## 1
Amino acid sequence: MTSAMSMTLNAKPPEPAPTAALTGVHLAYGRQTVLDGLDWALLPGQVVGLLGRNGSGKTTLLEAMLGLREAESGSIRLFGETVATLSDAARARIGYVPQQSDLFDWLTPTQMLDYFKSFYPRWNDAKVEGLLSKWNIAPGKTIAKLSGGEQQRLAIIRALAHEPDLLVLDEPVASLDPAGRRDFLRELVDQVLNRGTTVVFSTHILSDLERVAFNIAFLSAGRIALQAPLDELMETTCRVSGPVAAVQALLQSRGLVELRSTALGGGRQQVLARCAANAEPPSSQGDVSVEAVTLEDLFLGLTQ
Ligand code: ADP
């Protein structure tokens, strides 16, 4: 085999171009910095739950990503284009459900959807009709008379109808009752999975994410503190506690990355740590204890 051939065979497939790429994004309201040099990439087909405490900047981030709010510095690209000068063709590939949708509430769902249909080159009538009936939305009732949950579902139908390649949902289940939230989100994601749509939805409610988001991004202090597939996160993250020197020695010898450390007093510390993607966390040894973490531990640890 020639060396050129072996190089070709051994070469890794190129990473797909990100659907959204944010680099060094900075955005402040007056003196309050909300996005502080944030880097983020969403790859085609990824389903990402954006997790952050109330007021951490999730809405600001999603709006900036879509060009609805101007960042002071940094670069934001969607489908390879700069967001500030996004082409109509790229715009038509986005579906967005804001926290408060302006649905033209004097119209009926049918009238509103007909109106939006005229703006898009692609529109899936069968999907719209199927979802209206599945989600029990009366197509002829004035939107103002629909419940909050029905209006939220209608906004989602509007965002799915043109089969977007990037679907952005800001707290999409806020108006639904707690019991139905996760199942509805799962169903929503299933709607787009076979098309390879990139999905990002924000939430501050952990239970929304289980069985729904394959990737979780934690927003904290104006940056994405960590993004990884949920199952990988749970398998590779642990809590290490014990005397500082012994904890640090274990982290170093096993190549664990410290995510957050808390002083426990008496020369002891507790560290939330992560090992490499395919490595297993160490076991407890001597004075040092190593425990598994829950998603809640991670949320509390990473979004302080
Ligand atoms: P989240 O979606 O995570 O709850 P937001 O992005 O809504 O967070 O808000 C982040 C912070 O920015 C909050 O402290 C909020 O009060 C502030 N904020 C949001 N929008 C504005 C605005 N238009 N003007 C001034 N401050 C704002």
## 2
Amino acid sequence: MAKPPALQAPRGTRDFYPEEMRQRSWLFAQFREVARRMGFEEVDAPVVEHAELFTRKAGEEIVEQLYHFTMHDRHLALRPEMTPSIARMVMARAGALRLPLRWFTVTQNWRYERMTRGRKREHFQWNMDVWGEPGVAAEAELLAAIFALLARVGLGAGQVRVQLNSRALLEDTLRAGVLRARPDAFAPLCVVVDKLDKIGADAVVDQLCDPAGAVQLSPAEARDVVALLGTRSIDDAAAAAPPGSPAIAELRRLFELLDAYGIAQYVDFDASVVRGLAYYTGIVFEAYDAERKLRAVCGGGRYDRLLEALGGPSIPAVGFGFGDVVIAELLADHGLLPALPRGLDDVVCALGEAQRAAAIRVAERLRAEGRAVELVLGESRPKRVLADADKAGARSVWLLGPDEATRGVVKVRDLASGTERDEPNS
Ligand code: HAM
């Protein structure tokens, strides 16, 4: 019989049973370990923010996907991403923070998405952001963090590739060309262009020409833009860019730095990557499985003007968000999701109520040594206790029956070897 809706998790959300929770904790531990090794500090913010923090004017999908509600005259929203909350936190202490700062978060985010493989309505995201560093050394460090994570979880040598572009380059090129008279149309143009993979070139051209849209190019101009997105080498991009474009120099420098990290060979220049969020201003990137079977594993870029747009001082920033869903699918596809044991060391069982106090003392003594100990709470037969403990992956079972009590011992059964010994019960 189908369960009534109220008894099911809402569509696109997940319950985490112990096995799944162990995998989630394992993945988060990898995120945290990479962040720690790179000298990043963890921060957090509320999952509910004022909706206005997220509502922007560039027609981004993320705004339409907001879970929002009004309570006591306040318009609130569940965070769809971390970047605005982090910006809010930086702004609140802008004068007091020592820059550049390196912050990371591991948080749950909410987006009312159309569900496809790899996309849910809640997901966890590992964010790594550097604030206060204008140079591409920050981008290089962040990309190194992505590859460090991939290596930690067993995805090496090109199983995931990064596609990288510069919005500054596209902006310089278009402002010298089709957007000469209309520089404001750049951010909404990026939002449209980001859909190229999803909706195809013709639909992008239609949207760029939409007389009711924010970009309003002529069909010839729109086709020129789409052609520009086909560029796959920095040299070709340089030929289309205004002479001496600083964005080209930045891209070349970034690849030199990536080479020093030993990851340049896994990063491709791809002019079609612009990202769907309007706040990016410089280098932008996304990582995909090499076969491009799944959606982006992670994405990020430079957003030097976000703080000013929120009314704060000008502080350059760059970062990425790395979700838990696509990486888990990719790891599962490659047989790399670890089957994690429960991590139980001992099971302690009193055989009879008279022995319960002694069993409690044994369990507490083992716990004080740092061992993970399950104390059998009700009545159980030794055979059942042993079978359950074995199934749970425990290493030993401590049994206290009347006989052991009289002799002042505990019977310890080692589950791996099947051997038994008596330990003094004191
Ligand atoms: P984003 O591309 O919207 O960027 O999300 C980053 C990553 O989060 C995606 O590549 C994907 O792994 C995961 N993700 C996003 N939406 C979903 C979903 N509905 N279901 C499953 N996974 C999802 C941002 O959010 C930016 N704030 C990242 C950033 C940080 N940029 C600078 N700093």
